Amino acid sequence: MRTTEKKTFFVYSQGTSPRVLTLGSLVLEDYVNPTLTRHYCHPPLTGKTLENAATVTPIKDFLFYKDMGLQLGPNIDVAEIAKAGIGWKRRRESILHSPIGKKIELIKPEEFLNNVILADPTSEAHQALQLWLTAGSSEYYTHGKFFRTPDIWMLTGYYILENARVLDVESADYNLNAEISSAIVTAVSGVPVGGGFTIGKDLQLKVGMLVEEAHVWAAQYQKLDAEYVRVTGETTASAATNQFPLLDTFSKGQVRA
């Protein structure tokens, strides 16, 4: 049986400060918009704590082609998009380039979740999970929570990139290959926002955005194995926040783990 590498890192259209998107953060349902939906932001890991909990891999000349129309969230129905009449010609395409950055990923995310994030039963993370996972009797049945499982995602890895440029593709037809990728890396340095350049005969690019500070541009999420808890007179909300395994269910991305 042939196996392929999973593409689990979701690439964002705009970078986010690493103080806002942090390792161990929890997101309810929508990791595509992690700071707009209900979420818990774990304190940033630094120094020895980061060294012991995660791998840090330096990277150079990160170059990624992003088809904005193909990156779908966890609850998006492709059939519904087709019904809405969104076709190929209306997709926005771009290329993300950064000369330097880091890939940071938790070594043992499940242990980190249960032994660090949820170690204190009075923590903000516990309170968030209690809120998300508990339901009164009426809500438990009327909203169908007795047969659904909650979508709670833990951020387990990300790419932090510096001096990142988003290049808008202004060509209709082109193919990316090693030669063209190398030419983009060479040509893009020093091009200001709004400036454009051409690679070969077919690929026309314009710098649409430049973010000099280190930002998170791609993130990997893993789903918690959790269930809703019906709160009755005999059941307390704390029953919702026991230890949680992590499922082998990852964010749908376009960058390999």
What would you note in describing this structure?
- This protein has 257 residues and is an alpha+beta fold.
- The protein folds into two domains: 7-159 and 213-256, no CATH class; 164-211, no CATH class.
- Helix content is 19%, strand content 37%.
Biggest β-sheet strands, sense, barrel: 12 strands, antiparallel
**Which radius of gyration do the C-alpha atoms yield?**
21 Å
Count of discrete domains: 2
Helix amount: 10-25%
- Treating each run of at least 4 consecutive H or I residues as one helix, how many helices? 6
**Which descriptor suits the 3D outline?**
elongated
Number of strands: 14
Structural class: alpha+beta
User: Which spans of ≥5 residues are poorly predicted at pLDDT below 50?
Assistant: 68-91
SSE pattern, N- to C-terminal: EEEHEHEHHEHEEHEEEEEE
Average pLDDT works out at 80
Strand content: 35-45%
N-to-C CA distance = 20 Å
Provide a concise account of the structure shown.
With 257 residues, this protein is of the alpha+beta class. The protein is 19% helix and 37% strand.
Sequence-ordered SSE layout with sheet pairings:
Blueprint: E1 7-16, E2 26-28, E3 39-40, H1 47-53, E4 54-67, H2 78-83, E5 93-106, H3 109-117, H4 124-133, E6 134-135, H5 137-142, E7 152-162, E8 164-169, H6 178-188, E9 196-199, E10 203-211, E11 215-224, E12 229-230, E13 246-250, E14 255-256
